[in-house]
Amino acid sequence: RERERERETVMKGRRREAEEKGKMENSTEEGHSESDVVGELMQVIETVGSFVGFTRTQRKECLNLVRRLKLLVPLLEEIRELHTSIPAKALYFLTNLKKPLLSAKKLLKQCYHGSKIYLAYESEAVMCRFHAVYDNLNRALDDFPYEELGISEEVKEQVELMGMQLKRAKRRTETQDIELAMDMMVVFSKNDDRNADSAIIERLAKKLDLHTIAELKTETVAVRKLVKSRSGENAESIQQIIDLLGKFKQIAGIEETNVLDGPVSSRSLKKCPSLFIPHEFLCPITLEIMTDPVIVATGQTYERESIKKWLDSNHRTCPKTGQTLSHLSLAPNFALRNLILQWCEKNNFELPRKETYAGSSAELIEEISFLVQNLSSGQLDVQREAIVKIRMLSKENPDNRILIASCGGIPGLIQLLSCPDSKTQEHTVTALLNLSIDETNKRLIAREGAIPAIIEVLQNGTDKGRENSAAALFSLSMLDENKVMVGCLNGIPPLVDLLRTGTIRGKKDAATALFNLSLNQANKSRAIKAGIIPPLLHLVEDNALGMIDEALSILLLLAPHPEGRNEIGQLTFIETLVEITRDGTPKNKECATALLLELGLNNSSFVLAALQYGVYDHLVQISRCGTSRAQRKANSLLQHMSKCEHIL
């Protein structure tokens, strides 16, 4: 028995030693872990602070989030200074803080490196991710043990301030760029043939900062990564993004290739990788070996065809240096061409065959000057031929639009808008539409007094003339001062009439113009007085026209206006909106839910009417399965409905 007792005593002693040893090891590991957690959190905040140049659609939200995250730095620094060993409770909170910080880093990284087109297309979904980050950060900081850690009152107040800012940011009313949203909807809609398409594409390219070669190459890389990460998911929306990127490239004068193939250049070199060719022989734009090198005003050399496309796309800077070009002349670089030919002969390399450059700018200026002169001819046939040629020259070439304006073509065309011949009017207004795509020309056309004459064609012209007049007013009204001018000159009533009585294409062009004009507060009243709401309600109810989203978007602009709200809120239309939330496309449901929310926030009777028509179940379904924006709107409307029921 004594031996057994002795053995038990020894075993207990060994167990005690083992436990103490284990505690020491655990303590060492915990100490290492504590140091790592604080260091890792500091590193995450430092990394997100280094991100600059966020995409425009999320720039404000990104900068605000980075600024708020930096408010955590003094807290972490104070913890590191005050404690060599962090209490278990505090360590738990810090570990919980790590996950939302990493989520914030991932989101900010996507807004920094991601596809600009995708981020604009999914702006609502991205905003939901920001709100989720805000929620998670606040939860992680709730009941943080400031006193236990000895954190100063100043630092505590700073962190609590951050928490309040995050809560306010989540409650903040949506500040979506509604003009951008409408433009995205138009370019992504299927089988759309409205005339304003080119102007919309150019505006989108500027809004998304995708109009230079460097920006488009970066976007191409981002889209490739997006396609790879999606692995075939959302194939339709991904294809739409790729198609829009192609349109942006076309405007910038870059030849389109399959976004998914080859290196990121206008065209990939075949059979001979560029690294085998001397760098100075490659065009800086296409990265191809040059066959016809020319020198621009800055002294840089480019392939003639490539730099010509760059200049034709209304660029007036050197692509490589970014300097403004003092002139647009191109001088052949014979010395470099001879060196390239010698290298090709020595290395048995065949230069790609290219079409020779046809025509010169001097000849083009002479031709345009001659056409502008003929606009003043006393013979109608000569005038009409000149208009048609100017129309074709200005259709696709940005440089031609500038040349025609500089040669005095705009005043001559405006005079012919009053020509009694309807076909001449039609060609003239279409030529002005093409010229108005250029930003400077928009101001010039309005300043020369074109808007009253365009409105006259809109009222009394041919179907084609009315369509193109609406498209021209849309293009001109991209400038805020022109929105005001079109409204003051009584241009809205004939647009409403075209919306009501026009062809399908005319209705679409009228809707696009009316949406743009209604961004101006005074024009909302004018549109409502002109009777815009009945035809919009008809477009919503007639599914065959395929204009439900456009009509609902305009109604959403008009709904905050008291007169508009009362006219929109007819019981029969509330029932139609409820039916759309049940049977519409995802985008239809999104727009209908947004409009119901806008109406309901201002008048509880609209909410009660929608409930009577059975909207509740549809909203619950949308809140689970709708688009990101639709889910947000549905949840807001459901919350508002519960408040209304509580009050009643």
Automatic annotation (TrEMBL):
Origin organism is Davidia involucrata (Dove tree)
Protein's GO biological process = cell surface receptor signaling pathway; protein ubiquitination
Cite the GO molecular-function annotations of the record: ubiquitin protein ligase activity
Q: What is the lineage of its organism?
A: Eukaryota, Viridiplantae, Streptophyta, Embryophyta, Tracheophyta
| Stretches forming ARM repeats | 408-450, 490-532
Pathway given in the UniProt record: Protein modification; protein ubiquitination
Task: Tell me the protein's name.
Answer: RING-type E3 ubiquitin transferase
Q: Where is the U-box domain?
A: 276-350
For this protein, what is the EC number? Answer: 2.3.2.27
